[in-house]
Structures are given as C-alpha cells and as structure tokens.
Amino acid sequence: MKMAKRLFDCVCALIGLTLLSPILVLLYFILFLSSGHPVIFSQLRVGRNKKLFKCHKFRTMKIGAPNVATHEISENVITPIGHTLRRYKIDEIPQLWNVLVGDMSLVGPRPCLPNQDELICERDKRQVFSISPGITGLAQVRGVDMIDPSKLADIDQFYISRQSLVFDFKIIFNTLIRR
Length: 179
Fold this sequence. Notes:
By secondary structure, this protein is mainly alpha-helical. The chain is built from seven helices and four strands; from the N terminus they run αββααβαβααα. The strands form two sheets. A two-stranded antiparallel sheet has the order 1-2. Strands 3-4 form a two-stranded parallel ribbon.
C-alpha cells in the first residue's frame, strides 16, 4: 500500500504541476503585482514521525500577519485576492511540490504547526504521525478543523485505519466539489 500510495502521489503531483504550470506562472505575477513579495509562503509544519518541514502555499495574508493556525487568523489580515485563493483551495497548489519531495501526501491528516501542542499530543496518542500529512484529508471533507484537537485526531486515526487508494480518491473528489 505504501509504495502504491507514494507512486500515486508522485504521478498526480507531477501531472498537476505540469498541467497547472501556465496558470501558476500567471498567478505568481498577479500575486506579485497585487501584494508584493514573497508570493510563496513557507511555514514550518509537523510531518511524518513529527519531523518538521517547510510547507509551501501561495501567500494569502498581508506581510507581518501572525504565525498562527488558520482558525485563529483575523479576516482583516487576508489580502483581497487571498479570500478567493482560500475559498477555492488554490493557495494549496504549491504543496504539490511538498508531495513530490516526500514531505506530504495528496491525502492524509493536514499538517499542524509546531506550536499546536494540544493537537500534537492528541495525534501522538493515536499514532497519527505514523503517516505523511496530506494536502487534503478526511477531516477537511467532513468540515472538522483544528479547533477541536481531540475530534480531529479521532478522524485522522479513523482515516489511517481505513486508508486505501479508493478511499483517497473519494476524499480527493469530495475536496474538489466542496467549497
């Protein structure tokens, strides 16, 4: 399963980056003109085996915004174009690079910040860090975010117990149709 999932992740990430490259270049210039540098925002996240890695996203917040979880962000620090990027999950596309280099998977628990101690503790209890975090996950399609660490870790654990390529396809499909 692990080898098939990794192959699936790499093939999809490579195809996605290739097909989306013209749009990504255009978006890069639009973001640069509308809100300046840096266009790509890199943030330390907790990955497989609690190893820290840099997670990449298109920057959707003003420079100097606090480095906190998404649910703790004030709406007034999000750039005008940032709202649209977040709504349609376009800001997540640079994470395809994280998938290619092996820091992330397409589907898995969303990576948390190193300062989210309660969530890290709950995930540790349930061995959630035994797999790579994902660009999307079961909790996201179920509408559960990092506000409730115990519930989130339970859903992450459920995903791990049921993970398969078919289940991943369902989660990806539900992510794409959910707004």
